[in-house]
Amino acid sequence: MAIRQESELYLPVKAFFERQGFEVRGEVRHCDLVAMRDGEEPVIVELKRTFNLPLLIQGIDRLRHSNRVYLAVEMPPKGRAPHGLKWSELQRLCRMLGLGLLTVRFYKTKAPCVEIQCEPVPYVPRRNKKATQLLTKEFNERSGDYNVGGSNKRKLVTAYREKALQCAQLLRQHGPLSTRQLREMTGNPQITGMLQRNVYHWFERVKFGVYDVTPAGLQALETYAYVLEERAGFNSQ
């Protein structure tokens, strides 16, 4: 049951904290809800019908008053997170900012249900070494900048696609080749796996260990001719 005003979130969230022994007040020094318990650090909750940027800004601003700041939004009837995102993505964002996240689900015949999506804990950055290595590897294995940042709904020229194009080009030039020949000509030790997986359907096996390029592969060579030309120029330098 969709709500019309963010103020409808107040009473369910208030009751949620009161059941935990908090004393709750609304609109305290511009904070939508403040809860206190036994001299603990205040809990601050900012209310919005849906998760959005202004709510995040409010939450960040409230961290000046307390480290225990929650954002509270309605859980839509179908349970979907807003903006085409996942709740796990919103949880991760809140954790990175040191904010907690509450959702309130409203029903027609029973009381609203408040759920904690994540707690407000100080964020400690943790770099994923493997992710960094993969990012660096992908960057270094590309021969040039063939993609426009921010583009979508278009096929990207990745390092993998470049390697597949190189392989297709050699097959077009020389005809069917063995995996050993292609490995020596490309310097790519993973060439056998690439041919076997055949992600783009550019290759076909003509006999054991020997491959040729398909019509789809020939079309790709025309489509990405600019990549091959730039690679050739780069390699000749």
Number of domain units: 2
Outline, from the CA principal axes? Answer: elongated
Order of helices and strands: HEEEHEHEEHHEHHEEHH
- DSSP summary: helix tally: 9
User: Which strand order does the major sheet show?
Assistant: 1-2-3-4-5-6
Q: Radius of gyration in whole Å, from Cα?
A: 28 Å
Fold blueprint:
Elements: H1 10-18, E1 23-28, E2 31-36, E3 43-47, H2 53-62, E4 68-74, H3 87-97, E5 100-105, E6 113-118, H4 129-141, H5 159-174, E7 177-178, H6 179-186, H7 191-197, E8 203-207, E9 210-213, H8 215-223, H9 225-236
Parallel strand pairs: 3-4, 4-5
Antiparallel strand pairs: 1-2, 2-3, 5-6, 7-9, 8-9
Helix pairs in contact: 5-8
Question: What does the model show?
Answer:
With 237 residues, this protein is α+β, with helices and mostly antiparallel strands. The protein has nine helices and nine strands. The protein has helices at residues 10-18, 53-62, 87-97, 129-141, 159-174, 179-186, 191-197, 215-223, 225-236; strands at 23-28, 31-36, 43-47, 68-74, 100-105, 113-118, 177-178, 203-207, 210-213. It is elongated and about 80 Å long. The model has no long low-confidence stretch (mean pLDDT 91).
